[in-house]
Structure formats: structure tokens, C-alpha cells
Amino acid sequence: MRKPKTSIFTRLLSYFLLILIFPTFSLTVYNVIARENRLRDDLSHQAALRLETDRDTIMEAMDTYRHKAYVISSSENILSILEGKESNLSDVYATLFDVMKGDTYLADAYVISKDGSIRISTSIFPESYDIRVHNNDREQGNVLSEVMGQNKDPRSSIITLGQNRISYRGYRVLFSILRSILDKNSNLLGYTIIDVYSEAVIPKLKGSELFADEILMDKNSYLGYSLLHTDLAGTMDKFPDIDDKNMVVSKLDFNSFSLISVINPEPFRNTGKTIYKALSITLVFGVLISVIFTLIFSNSISKRLNKMIMTMRRIENGELDLTLEKETGITEFDTLAGSFNLMVGRISHLIEARSEEERKLREAERKAFESQLNPHFIFNTLSTIKSLARLDGEDKIYTISVELGRLLRSSLTNTSPESTVREALKLCEGWLKIQKIRFEDTLDYKIDADEETLDLTIPKLIIQPLVENAVIHGLEESLSQGCVTISVKKHDGKLEIVVLDDGKGLDNPELFKDFSKLENSGHVGIYNIYMRLKLKYGDNFEFSIQNGDKGTISRIVLPAEKKGDENHE
Amino acid sequence: MSEQEKLSLIIVEDEKILLRELMNTISWNELGIMVTATATDGEEGERLIKETAPDIVITDIKLPKKDGLEMIADCNLLYQNVIVLSGYTDFKYTRKAIQLGIYDYLEKPVDDEELENILKKLSKRIREEHEKESSMRTGGTGEAIKLPRTVNNHQVNCVIGFIRENYASPIGLSDAAEFAKLSENHLSTLFREESGINFLQYLNAYRINKAVELMKKEGINISEIATSCGFPTPGYFAKIFKRFLGQSPTQFRDSRF
After folding, report:
1. What DSSP string describes A52-80?
2. B137-256: what CATH class?
3. Does the CB of A402 have a partner CB in chain B at under 8 Å?
């Protein structure tokens, strides 16, 4: 199971986008679901309020004109003229105009005798009210024809909606009020009709700015009259809006009328659209800002991280005096840096203590050496011994002085922690040559190194202690003929160093199973090799010492490195 | 071994026992090398080198009067033909010698086997160079030695130009390197790669061509020719002349003119 790798940038960006999109999305959903209903509720509430006002206005107008009809119907002058008595016609008109207060652009009043012979009006008497012409023709669709057609004899006023009837002066009749005129014996004399024009009511209505339409409906006749659209009047099928689902419809009943308002929510939806627009702008800006913030954050983080990584790499490569910056401004990083620094500090302290110890030891040795003998003098002396031996044919003395010079020089002047395989083998060979002379040829050695391994780099002094170990522990004690073999080979990018002897083998092979326990044993040299390899290669090496078929086999496997190789990134 | 050309070698070493040891115990004969002279101080060494133009010089670094590296530089000798023996405290000089491009160095006490191995390799190279030199003979006297006048490298061409201008003066690789603004080591390698011969060979060959031109004129003796062509001594001139043209200058003049 591998976790997919993502960069800090992508992660941050997705979190930011999630944070951004979630509320926006829910707001949008909420808006879609709830807004429509709320809009409807709001609108119908407002509609109801205005409708009430408008109803009051209409009722008031109706009452006013009903009263006027009553006044006219009960006026002495009108009665007497309808009863056929002599009367002054101008008085009759005066009464009529007085009642109508002269506002004939809002309403006209007509008086007609029951046989139609007498017709008085504030304007030109409309033909449709002429009983003689139409008699009981209901098709006229006006208040009079309705009463006549049903042979009613109403005692109270009847109010009917005017259809698309236009008055003589060009006004649209909103409703008509009819009142029977009765004599003292309640005999029908005629009718008073007041045509109220839309101008009397409509300008006073409050709903026009909110409503798509406002319809006054007669519940008896199911005829409607649009108060906002001057050409709409008639049966209800002419008002398709009322049933439309997209419309908000409120209804208010009074007397035999209903006042219906229709609201087109479309204009209010536009505010919804602006909300969507605002949302999408927010979304776009949000995404932009998220990207910018992510860039800033991830940059600030990765910049610090990269800096830390760079420093860590350098520390890895041995610059142990470096520390990670602890004032990054991010607590976790500071903690991390703190712990890391502490760790590096401990490691470098350990190394320092160790190398200090080694250095002190070597310094002490060197000083002890130098205080008695100046190295220049020693080498010159060796050189002279060597020359004399050579001149005298003393080959063993010659060999010992040359190899001793080499070994001394290596320990005194070579401070590099590494050497090539060639140099290391040369020193081993020198040491073995001297030992061979010392043991008078009971010791033999073989060095078998692949040509390609000679220029590889290895830590200094890892082969020689193994060789010494083989000679001293393996052979010296056995006192018989012995042979040490050093073999250096390269395969699969690894360098394999094997030191083999044919001595008596290890007394206690178990001891070398775990080198880390050798620190306080008699095998400090082996322990030192192990620790140096561990410090340099971590776990990337093999080291074993065990008994072979005959004698001891020491084996080291290292990564094959050339000088300069380890400085690569 | 006998048909092999004997190479000449000079040892400059102030430790007389070491000097004696090297003289007596290195199998010079087998190596085909003849130790033509020894010196125990830098000035004497310089004089001997200038006089006999040895193929190889083995020198100590610390020497009385003049140190080994200075001596080599003053002889205008190629470092490539020098083996350095260094003592314990000569570490800094040794490093400098390596940078200058000496053939190899050995630390005292000297491992004679190593020295012999080094000498073997070096003399093989020098012999190849000498073969190359003799193969450049034209047999004529117009241009006695065939030399490339230009190569495909601007810097080397500059150096060839420098040789043409200054062959009569005691110039060496260091002067040419300074002129071409290259390190001595780099110039040396570059020159050999581009022209097929090393700097000193080119310089000497050019000088000999000039010397042959002068031989045509009456009344100029060999040592005057040697000096006016930039050779430090008539002996040196004679030695180089023979290496390139197979005859001594006098023989050459007598046979041709």
C-alpha cells in the first residue's frame, strides 16, 4: 500500500478550495430551495397588505357612489318628475349635478323611468341604458339589462362591473350602481344608474407598482375587470395569469366582489440572479485568493523545508558544525530543528570526543617520538641504513628500512581519513615484508587485488588491523608455517576485501557475531574498524570475522567509491 | 639491449652514500641508461645539465646552493623528464613539483624497485620520443626537420609563433606558458596533443633548422651557431643535433656543405 504523494502546494490548495466551495455551495443550494418559497411568501404577504388597502379604497368608492345613488333616488325633484308631475327640469339637473358634485370625469349619473320615456343624465344618455331600445336584452351586459332581464325589483343598490364600456366622454366604466326609484307606495318609478369610471378608483390604488395585474371580480357573474390593464375585462378565462404557477395570487373578498392581485415574481427573481452572480464572482475571487494564499503558504513552508533539507544534506556530508535555523516562525519547524540540532550536536560531540581522543593519542605518540628523535633525522638515518645495506648486499636490512620508512611516513604525515586501495595494500605489504623477515620466512603472504579496485577509496587503516590480527592471533601463536592472503575484488558496485589466514582459527567465534560488544574486550582494533565503518557508511556495509575451513576469514564489503565520488549531491 | 640507444642520466643528490648506492646498485645497463654525470649541489647540477643535455634527471629537492626545482626551471628542461627524490620535510616542494608536472617522485628511504620501475616507464617514453624525432628528418638542408607550422589550436599556434620569435633566447616552457596564459602542465599536454611532439622537441627542432640554415654560411663556427640559435652550450647543441639528425653538427656540415 503506497500513499499517493502530493506536494504541500496541492494539499493546501485542495483544503483551501474545500473551505471555499463548501459554504458557497450550501449557500447556493439553500438559496435555490428556500428562496423561491420565501419570495412567494414575502410577495403574497406584501400583496395581501396592499390588497387590503386597495379593497378599502374600492369599498369606499362604492359606498360613496352608492350613497349618491340613494340620494338621487330619493330626491323629491327626481320623484316628482318620474311621477309625471310638473317640475322644473333645471332643478332636476341641479339636484343631479349637486349630488355628483360636478365630478363627471369620475362618474356619470343617469335617471331613467321604468318605461324609458324619461331619461336624465349628467352626460349624454348612453344608448345601452335606453330601455326602449334594448328592453330586457341581457346581452348588453350592463347593470340595467341584468335587472330588467331577471325581472328583479331590487330594493337596494346593485353594483356590477362595467365591461369594456367606454363613456361618451371616453372614460372606461369600472362599475355601475343601479338603484330602483320607488314612490311612497314602493312602486317602481325608474332607476338611478351611476357609472363610475376607472379614474375614480385606479389612481388611488397602491398595488400598481407591485402587482402584475389587479383584478376586480364579480362573484355573481364571474366577470373580471383588470384595474391595471385597461383593455382587459370580461370572463375569467381572459385572465390567464391567475392560474399560472409562476404567479403569486392573493385574493380578498368583500360584498359580492373579489379583489385579486397577481404578482409576477420574475423581476424579484432578478435579485436572485444578482445573488448568483455575486456568488460566482465570490467563487472566482475565492479561487484566485486561495491560489495566492496557497502559493504564499506553501512557499513559506517549502522554502523553510528546502533550507532545512539543504542544511541537513550538508550535515550528512560531514559539516557537523552547521545547525538548522531555529527561528523559522513556525513552531513545529522550530521544534524539529531544535531536536535535529540536539541530535547533530550529540553526534558531533561523540565524534569530536572520539577523534579528540585519537588525535591526543597520536599527538602524544608523535610528541614522545619527536621529543627523542626528529623525524627528519630518522628518515635520513633510515635512508642511510638502506643505502649502506644495499651497497653491502644486505637485502633484508634494505627491505626493512624501506618498508619501515613507508610505514612511519604513513603514520606521521598522512592525516587524510581515507586512502586508496593501492596505498593501503602497499602499507600492508610493507608490514608483512618486515614480519616475514622477522619470522624468518615461516610467514608467507599473498596479495590478490583486481586492477580496477586499486584506485578506489577506503577508510584508512581498515585492512592492516585485520592483517595484524591474522598474523598475531592466527599465525604467531601457532609457530608453524602460515600464510596470509589479502584479496580485493569488485562486483556489483561493491568492494569486497577478504583477509584469510591458515592458522588455528578463532577460539571464540561467537565473540565476533556482534562487533558493538567488543568495545571493552581485547579486540579494540576490530571494534574501531567496525565503528569507523558504521559512522561512514551507516548500514551500507558488511563486516564479518569467522572461522573458515582452515584459519580465520575476515570480510568487509563496502560501496565502491572513488575519490570525489562522495561529494556528489 | 645493445642495439638500444643508451639514454643519458644525471643524478643530483647531496647525500653521497645514497648517490653511491644508486650508482652502484640500480641496474643501469639493463635499463639501457648511462649515468653520464653526478652532482651534489644545484649549481653544479645546472652546469652539467646545460653542458650534456641528459635525457633524464634524478634530483633531490633540498640541495646546497640551489634547490632542485629551481635548477630544473633554470635549465629550461622539461619537468616530464625529471624524477624527484624527496625527504621527510620536503612535502610542500613535492606538491609543487607534482603541480609542475614532474614525471614521478619517491620518498626517502627510496625503494629501489620502485625507482627501477619508474625509470623503465620513463625511458620507454623517451625512446619513443627520440624515434619520433629521428623520423622527422627530411634528409634535405632546406628544412632539415619537418615541423608543423600551424595546428588546429589557436593557443598552440600562438606558442609556435612565440618559438619562432624567441628561439634565439634561452626560453623554456614556463616562458611560453606565461605568454599563452596557460599553466605549464596544461600547455605541455595541449602542445603534445596538437602537434604530436612536446614543446621542448619543437623548440629544439626549430633551433636545429635554424642552425642548419646558418651552417650554409661560411665562417661561422659550431659554437657560435649553437649560441645564436639559443642552445645553452655547444655540448647541448651537439647532443640534440645528433638526436634529431643522427650526426654531429660537424659531421653534418662536412657531409652536406
Report:
1. HHHHHHHHHHHHHHHHHHHHHHT-HHHHH
2. mainly alpha
3. yes
Contact residues for A321 (Cβ-Cβ < 8 A; gap 6+): A348
Domain A418-569 coded CATH 3.40.50.300: no
Within the 95-124 window of chain B, which residues sit less than 8 Å (CB to CB) from chain A?
107-112
> Cβ contacts (< 8 Å) between B87 and chain A: which residues?
376, 379-380, 383
**CA–CA distance, A455 with A459 (Å, rounded to integer):** 13
- In this predicted complex, what is the ipTM? 0.76
pLDDT of residue B58: 92
Contact: B108, A380; criterion CB under 8 Å: yes
- The pLDDT of residue A468 is 85
Q: How confident is the model over A433-457, as a mean pLDDT?
A: 85
- A402 vs B contacts (CB less than 8 Å): 109-112
The CATH number given to B7-128 is 3.40.50.2300
Q: pLDDT digits over B84-139, tens only?
A: 888 766 667 777 777 777 888 888 888 888 899 999 998 888 888 888 777 777 77
- Whether B159 contacts B191, CB under 8 Å: yes
From A46-60, A156-170, A408-422, the region with the lowest mean pLDDT: A156-170
CA A107 to mean position of chain CA atoms: 69
Candidate CATH numbers 3.20.20.10, 3.90.1140.10, 3.30.420.10, 3.30.450.20; the one for domain A40-280: 3.30.450.20
